[in-house]
Amino acid sequence: MPGSRLDAIDRKILAELQADGRMTNVELARRVGISAPPCLRRVRTLEEAGFIRGYHADINTRELGFEVQVFAMVGLQSQAEADLSRFEARCRAWPLVRECHMLNGEVDFILKCVAPDLSTFQSFLTEELTAAENVASVKTSLVIRCAKDEPGVPFDVLEARLSKSA
Amino acid sequence: MPGSRLDAIDRKILAELQADGRMTNVELARRVGISAPPCLRRVRTLEEAGFIRGYHADINTRELGFEVQVFAMVGLQSQAEADLSRFEARCRAWPLVRECHMLNGEVDFILKCVAPDLSTFQSFLTEELTAAENVASVKTSLVIRCAKDEPGVPFDVLEARLSKSA
DNA sequence: CCCTCCGCGCAATAATATTTCCCGGCCGCG
DNA sequence: CGCGGCCGGGAAATATTATTGCGCGGAGGG
Q1: Domain of B51?
Q2: Where would I find the HTH asnC-type domain in this sequence (chains A, B) (predicted)?
Q3: pLDDT band at B157, cuts 50/70/90?
């Protein structure tokens, strides 16, 4: 099972750093119940092993003038791998597209987009996204409000699973 | 215009901390071109003003055993505010639901969910989500792969806008 | 039973954060 | 004009933290 190479202390470290990425190492060590040096060694190991991909400040997008959030459901004409990759590359190059996920089902991709205002988004939609090569259909939905936005791992679920399988 | 209370240095600070939330204050100060103390003062101010909501480690969800990601489109029977709020509260309480956005259009909500495996998700889907009060329809799409996942602000777009309006 | 290895903790050192104080520019008012 | 408050920045001192090296002890294997 993935994650089993990690012991309880490692998982606690990940959970704490997910909750507060700027926690000092001594505070982190105190919370997970070991001393600072081995704690820092574990963190470095977790980083190098790829369990921790990085640390990021959570910036208030709206306050910075990006008041529009949109989910765009995109269908392509060709689902050949080369065409899928080309579309993904375009998404990575569009700054207004913050997430791009390939899906199963009737829609090929879902994009999460941001924009300063509706007209900016509509320009992007009509001149860039819809006009892009191989794009067959685009359906967009404005985000009215956000009730929950906690990307990451539900560590409580993880611990529950591990204790059951033990 | 929102964001205009921030000068160029503040925006640079936000951009740097979004890219690397564990950057030391001296390194941050060096990058934005001021000395450490005023830099730290600015960071504190940005935190208290809500521009910085927090700092989080970006944990590799898949490596930790959550191999399934799903987008769920949910339609409700009643869109009265009280019913919307009740549904949002339920979403906040479900650990497998990581994001919950209210949308315009034919679908009322879109949820981003994670799960250790398909059967866990299907149990959640049938026993919790679909069975929840006021839920009229649920359409789910599995995430096949993720081409881009960079939540946050496209600071290059922001700077371009500000220089144009100047 | 001994040996090796791995991870922890301790102590010392280097780096960093944080506070304090002071300086210079920038208004608004006298 | 000149004055005085007001930010925002820099320098130095202090406290906190990160980091390294080393010795110890337990787990697993010979």
Answers
A1: 6-55
A2: 6-67
A3: very high
Residue A105: list chain B partners with CB under 8 A.
Answer: 139-142
On whether both A43 and A76 belong to a single domain, the answer is no
Residue B24 contacts strand D, CB under 7 A: no
Query: pTM (2 decimals)?
Result: 0.92
List CB contacts (< 8 A) between B61 and chain A.
152-153
For residue A79, the chain B residues in CB contact (below 8 A) are: none
Same domain, A37 and A72: no
- The alpha carbon of residue B50 is apart from the nearest alpha carbon of chain A, in Å, by 7
Q: Angle B25-32/B8-19 helices, nearest 10 degrees?
A: 130
Condensed to tens digits (0 to 9), the pLDDT of residues A29-70 reads 999 999 999 999 999 999 999 999 999 999 999 999 999 999
Q: Could you tell me the CATH number of the domain that includes residue A37?
A: 1.10.10.10
A101:B17 CB<8 A: no
Per CA to C1' distance, which residue is closest to D21?
Answer: A37
CA nearest B111: which of B52, B57, B70, B153? B70
* A163 pLDDT tier (thresholds 50, 70, 90): confident
For the CA atoms of chain A, what is the radius of gyration?
20
